[in-house]
What we know:
By secondary structure, the protein is of the alpha/beta class. The chain is built from 6 helices and 5 strands, in the order βαβααβαβααβ.
Amino acid sequence: MIHLIVGNTGSGKTTYSNHLKIKTKGIIFSIDKWNKILFLPDKKPNDGLEWFLERIDRAESIILNLIEQLENSKTDSILDLGLSKFEHREKFRKFADYHGFDLTTHFLDISKETRLKRIMERNKEKGETFEFEVTKENFDFMENWFEKPNESEMINGILISV
């Protein structure tokens, strides 16, 4: 089973993924961790969104290969990859369809106020799910970047709202 974990910045995707991991004994792919370890040490001040998107796309090529191996081993894949755009989510749905893998979308639909509060607390506390600071500017950018899953994406999906 492939689990797409969808939600805007601060919705609790990583925390939710960690709980799902315990429940399913699955493997989490968290793009925040990959970014922190593989990409951020090389980022230059002028590197922007395209720089990140290129690296994320390359990382996802490896992730797709690993998902195939996990599916063949009957192990769930939990994708905490941002998945902010319909097109990004569709990439994984098409992959699952092509290979005959089951896929469930989990949408964490959490209010902007709650998410902003969580981000500010996470930045300050630097707790278990902290990978890097999210500025108010980054948060505001993601508010306009994120596309909520549509009705067809949520067929047989799981909606979490607070």
